[in-house]
Amino acid sequence: MDTEWTDIAAERSVLGGIAPFLAGVVLVAMLIGALWLGARVRAREPRRPRPDEQPRIPEGGPVHEERLHREPDEIPQSDRRLTPYEVHGNQGTRPSPEKKRPRWSKNSSGGFGSGGLGAH
After folding, report:
1. Average pLDDT of each block of 10 consecutive residues along the chain (120 residues)?
2. How far apart are the C-alpha atoms of 36 and 40, rounded to whole Å?
3. What are phi and psi of 93, to 5 degrees?
């Protein structure tokens, strides 16, 4: 009777059990290393502010939003198309004499995809 095949099968089952165990040990070691590294990084960060160091509301109460309408300065006219470098970056703005918000069309906010019926 030949027992060679049973010996090979027994060796494979042992290797089949050891490989997942070793992979699990490596995975647990990596997780422990990640926790250790995270603790080191967190220890180097500045501490959280105490309650008395938190921001407070100004003495005059909450600050409200201020809406100003501004209009851009005119772009210089030229016989050819200007490149962004010739426009000199951000153009200045000045306060607009109109108090109403500019709209593309009457009764429309100019937004797309807002779910409304839009201007028809």
Report:
1. 67 72 95 97 92 88 78 77 73 73 63 57
2. 6
3. -130, 165
Residue 51 DSSP label: G
pTM for this prediction: 0.38
Is 96 exposed, middle or buried (CB count within 10 Å of its CB: 0-12, 13-18, 19+)? middle
Query: How far is the CA of 4 from the CAs of 1, 9, 13, 96, in angstroms?
Result: 9, 9, 14, 95
Supply φ then ψ for residue 59, to 5 degrees.
-60, -35
Backbone angles phi, psi at 70, to 5 degrees: -120, 150
Q: H helices within 1-120, ranges in order? A: 4-44, 84-87
SS3 114: coil
Cα 14 from Cα 35, distance rounded (Å) = 32
Q: Are 49 and 56 in contact (CB under 8 A)?
A: no
Q: How far apart are CA 8 and CA 1, in angstroms?
A: 15
Closest CA to 76 of 90, 63, 87: 87
